[in-house]
Structures are given as C-alpha cells and as structure tokens.
C-alpha cells in the first residue's frame, strides 16, 4: 500500500487505527525525516518555478485549468516542500496558501518562496485542523499525489475541504488509485496479481521505497514509525458526499503517479487504473 519496501511493515493494531491524533503525530515525525530528500531537490525546484514551470502532471493541469483572472486564492493541503503549491501560482492563482504539519517541510517551502518571490503563505497545521480563518476563502482547494493514504479520518478531512471553499470555489483531487497495489510487474513487464488485501486497512511501517523518497541518512530501523491506509475509492467518494460536496467528475487514469511501475511495459501500463481524480464544488 504505502510506497516502500516490505521490511518493517505490519498491520496497524486496532488501537493504533483508532488513535487519529497519534497516527498523525507519528506521520508528522516521519515526514520531518523525509524532508531531507526534498531539501536535496531545492535548487531544481527553485529553478523550475523561477522559469515559469510547473511540477504538476499534465492531467492535473488539465483538471485545474488556467487560473489567471479566476483564482484569487488557491489552498494546497498537505503541501510538503511547496513545489506543487507554487506551481498553482504559475498556473495563474493570485495567491497560494500551503498547509502542512511538518515544520521542516514548511521551512523548505519558505526558502522556496524567498528564492522565487511567489505570493505564498505557509500554514503549519494538521490537515484535519486547518485554521478557520481560511474558511470560505479558496477559489481552488487542491490536494495531490500521495496525500490521502496518510489520513486517519476521511470524514473530518472531507469536512475541511468543504469549509475552505468559497461559494463558487472548486475542489480538485488527483491521487493514487487504491487498486494499484493489487498489481505488480513480472519479469517480462506484464501485470501479475499481488497478495495485497484491498480491504486490509491501515499499515504501520518504517522505511521508504527508492522510487518514492529514496534512502535517508537515518538507518531504516531507526526511522520514525508511520501509518498509511489505501482508502478505497468508494470510501473516498462517500466521505466527500457525506460532507455535502457536489461531485462533478470522478475519473480513473493509467498515470503512474510515483514512478512505482516503471518496470511495466508502457502498453501494459495503460490497461489499469493507477491514479484517479475528482472535481467538486461546495454543493450549496
């Protein structure tokens, strides 16, 4: 489920799965450690944004569209080091706000702002506790690749998405498809079925896959324990509907969002959903 090697992986206990605050606190520590890799990409990220480029996938840019003259504020939840957040500015948002719980990630995002002159504000907060001062102010709420698996409570998350949206605002989600963990490549680059349990629930782990974060200076056994859950597509959609959001599009894509299936032949990769997107409004 979580993009990582098999070592140091186990099912989360029922107590761990119920402890939302503990789950998110553990993940905050893990992402503070993972910020080491993002710091190594700083010069590349700064050069990309300064040149007017975007770190978003083409499918994301198509979903978001041209923001010039139609987006006073874009809010990016679970923004990490800020590359994708500032990409929203490059797509035309007048102002961007990035929210993340990792102080080390936000320190990197602030450095990126200083290097690019972007009109960005960075808010240190758990995604389930975004300050109410931002309520109703977002012409765009965006949450992107690899964000949802780290959440312990989808209903609270969906409620936050809705309260941040301006009356005419849009929500755009692009993330990994939970079904992708059911498949892997054989020696010939074709798909085979894994032993992953689609309904298995949360996992606890240490360590990261090289394609995702790569090796950290901290030994894997000494890294912070983190929790992830590949929520089913049905659970995600149900949470959004339960919050009162009006879903305009739910689309499945063959896009390999974290380069975890590079050993699959290109013609095979197009056969299965590896990512999905949702576009929604407040539903007033």
Can you put this structure into words, describing what you see?
The protein is α/β, with parallel strands linked by helices. The chain has one domain (9-275): 3-Layer(aba) Sandwich (Rossmann fold), CATH 3.40.50. It is 31% helix and 23% strand. The protein has helices at 14-18, 20-40, 42-50, 58-64, 83-90, 103-116, 154-164, 233-242, 266-269; strands at residues 9-11, 73-77, 95-100, 120-124, 138-143, 165-176, 183-185, 191-193, 203-205, 226-228, 246-253, 275-281. The strands form three sheets. It has a seven-stranded mixed sheet with strand order 4-3-2-5-6-12-11. A three-stranded antiparallel sheet has the order 1-9-10. The longest helix is centred in the N-terminal third of the chain and has 21 residues, at 20-40. It is globular.
Jot down its keywords.
284 residues; alpha/beta; Rossmann fold; 7-stranded mixed β-sheet; 3-stranded antiparallel β-sheet; 12 strands; 31% helix; 23% strand; globular
Strands in their spatial order, largest beta sheet: 4-3-2-5-6-12-11
Mean pLDDT over all positions: 95
Largest sheet descriptor: 7 strands, mixed
Q: What is the CA-based Rg, rounded?
A: 18 Å
Order of helices and strands: EHHHHEHEHEEHEEEEEHEHE
Our count of helices gives 9
What is the total domain count? 1
By helix and strand content, what is the structural category?
Answer: alpha/beta
How many DSSP E strands?
A: 12
**Large-scale geometry:** globular
- CATH homologous superfamily, by name? Vaccinia Virus protein VP39
CATH domain topology: Rossmann fold
CATH class: Alpha Beta
Please report which band the strand proportion falls in: under 5%, 5-15%, 15-25%, 25-35%, 35-45% or over 45%. Answer: 15-25%
| Uncertain spans | none
The CATH architecture category equals: 3-Layer(aba) Sandwich
